[in-house]
Amino acid sequence: MSINHSSLINALEHFYQRYIQSYHQQHNQGPTVEHDEDWPSPCEQSKGADGERIYWQPVACEPPLDFTNIEQALELELHPDIKTYFGSFFSANLAATASDGGLELLFPWSQKDFERLQENILGHIWMKRKLKQEETVFFAVTDIDDVILSLVNSTGEIWAEKVGKKPHRKIADSMTDFINSLEPVV
Q: What Gene3D superfamilies does the entry give (predicted)?
């Protein structure tokens, strides 16, 4: 396991812990999501009192989720940080704030959701190639319309970009630095 892989796993685990603690402090219970029987997840713990919501918590993916199929389709090795970020845990998407404002971190909820995520990553990178732009992989949406947060595949840097446009503002030097800078919003 590389140092970067390990530090990113630690940053994600720490953020999850802070998110769950904040949720408990504000709601006197664990985090819940609306139950969707078409999208079951290993994150689901138990039904809430209303029967419509379900308690959940992040679950480590053992072994980590595999990106070989899309790397082969793209003839591109994805940056290790994006594979660690999306491949290490199943989780609900999580709201957070950064120095520049609000965002929602995207995570795969289940194996089925991971497959959908891979299709979206393929489409995103193919669009970048068609536009002759540097390859990025999105991982969060922001409070600003059409602005996403992406990892630049060649460097691992985190940038803001408008959908279909080149990245326009550097946010962090690495995914680990970025995750460590976030505050959970519950």
A: Syd protein (3.40.1580.20)
| Domain total in the chain | 1
- Is residue 176 within 8 Å of residue 8, measured between CB atoms? yes
Give this prediction's pTM. 0.94
SS3 label, residue 47: strand
- Distance from C-alpha of 159 to C-alpha of 22, rounded to nearest angstrom: 27
Tokens representing residue 11 in the block: 């940053």
In whole angstroms, what is the distance from residue 95 CA to residue 183 CA? 9
SS3 for 89? strand
The CATH code of the domain that includes 14 is 3.40.1580.20
Cβ proximity of 157 and 172 under 8 Å? yes
pLDDT in tens, 124-172: 999 999 999 999 999 999 999 899 999 999 999 999 999 999 999 999 9
